[in-house]
Amino acid sequence: MALTRGKGMIIGGLVAVIVVVVVAAVSAGVLDGLFKKSPAEIAKAAGVVETADAVKIPLKALDSGKALLLSLESDGRELYYFALKSRDGAYRAALDACDVCFQSNRGYRQEVDLMVCNNCGQSFPSDRIGEIKGGCNPHPLARGIDGQHLVIKKADIVSRKDYFARKRS
User: Fold this and answer.
1) 144 - beta bridge partners?
2) pLDDT tens-digit series, residues 122-139
3) Using an 8 Å Cβ cutoff, are 165 and 117 in contact?
4) Within a 13 Å sphere around the CA of 118, how many CA atoms are in the beta-carbon half?
5) What is the SS3 assignment for the chain?
6) 24: Cα within 13 Å, side-chain hemisphere
7) Mind listing the pLDDT tens digit for each residue in 72-111?
8) Which residues pair with 86 in a beta bridge?
9) Could you tell me if 93 and 83 are in contact, meaning their C-beta atoms sit under 8 angstroms apart?
10) Could you tell me if residue 85 is left (phi over 0), alpha (psi between -120 and 50 degrees) or otherwise beta?
11) What is the C-alpha radius of gyration for the chain, rounded to an integer number of angstroms?
12) What whole-number distance in Å separates Cα of residue 37 and Cα of residue 46?
């Protein structure tokens, strides 16, 4: 009986350790890659619609201020871009690449109201996205509003395919 009780305590202790390790890993972001959605899954969940010549992003999908990171496949190459609503209320779009660090094909991440280059660490306020070109700024994309959608012409994204010559890791 004491032997069974001892095994139970050992198993219970191991389970507790495993739970603590998993919770710590999730909190530290170690497992983010396992649960991260692809740009296609994100687009579908946000209600993004692709037509033959444009990408239509519902404005309501951008109203939170959180950047929507998307991709478009062209000739077997993934082209990355993002859209967001900046703090000044404007809807903006840019390639997920810049004129300086594009060869690393690491793109940007959002930290509160800043887009931060994953290669060099430079950060850019959201209300400057799509306005400034050159340097490490996200390369702007032309965009327009059509009803309740932000519209980006596919040709504008595809014309910048050289920014994505390398596969994204």
Assistant:
1) 151
2) 999 999 998 888 888 999
3) no
4) 13
5) CHHHHHHHHHHHHHHHHHHHHHHHHHHHCCCHHHHCCCHHHHHHHHCCEECCCEEEEEHHHCCCCCCEEEEEEECCEEEEEEEEECCCCCEEEEEEEECCCHHHCCCEEEECCEEEECCCCCEEEHHHCCCCCCCCCEEECCCEEECCEEEEEHHHHHCCHHHHCCCCC
6) 6
7) 999 999 999 999 999 999 999 999 999 999 999 999 999 9
8) none
9) yes
10) beta
11) 21
12) 12
Kindly report the CA angle at 117 between 116 and 123, in degrees rounded to 5? 40
Exposed e or buried b per residue across 36-55, where buried means at least 16 C-beta atoms within 10 angstroms of its C-beta: eeebeebbeebebeeeeebb
Which of 127, 123, 151 shows the shortest CA–CA distance to 137?
A: 123
Confidence band, pLDDT 50/70/90 cuts, at residue 16: low
Partners of 81 in beta bridges:
70, 95
Burial class of residue 97 (count of CB atoms within 10 Å of its CB; 0-12, 13-18, 19+): buried
Reading the block at residue 3, the tokens are 């032997």
